[in-house]
Design goal:
With about 130 residues, this protein is an all-alpha fold. Helices cover about 80% and strands about 0% of the residues. Keywords: Membrane, Transmembrane, Transmembrane helix.
Length: about 130
């Protein structure tokens, strides 16, 4: 899998969702979903795009299990956090409060593990990170 292409494409989808959401909020004058909008843009667009740049700039081996864990936990975590936030704050399906809360917490926790794995990856694969 081309990690750079994957992250750029997924981040582009989050950028579109975030832009449409912001446009809708601005046009409607309601800012109730601004926290969700911000998380979609920050963790969905900016973080995933930054990860794409990282994998493009530095020759992290494609066989790295830690890198694979980072990629998939980032993808699943961003989805889980943002969808979980939406479910938690909007409660679109009445009576699923516990499910919505758990979806939010599990998504955020997976994303936290993704960021932890990235920090570890930077040090474990440090020999591949240089200016030259």
């Amino acid at each position: 899998m081309d990690r750079t292409r994957f992250f750029v494409r997924v981040s582009a989808i989050y950028a579109l969702i975030g832009a449409f959401m912001g446009s809708h909020m601005a046009g409607g004058g309601g800012y109730q979903l601004s926290a969700i909008h911000a998380h979609i843009l920050v963790v969905g667009w900016l973080s995933l795009f930054a990860f794409a740049i990282f994998y493009k700039m530095f020759s992290i081996p494609k066989t790295s299990k830690l890198a694979s864990f980072h990629v998939w936990s980032s993808f699943i975590g961003v989805f889980g956090l943002t969808v979980g936030m939406w479910l938690y704050y909007t409660q679109p399906f009445g009576g699923l409060g516990v499910f919505n809360t758990l979806f939010f917490i599990v998504g955020g926790t997976i994303l936290l593990f993704a960021f932890i794995s990235f920090a570890i990856l930077v040090f474990v694969q440090g020999k591949h990170i240089s200016e030259a």
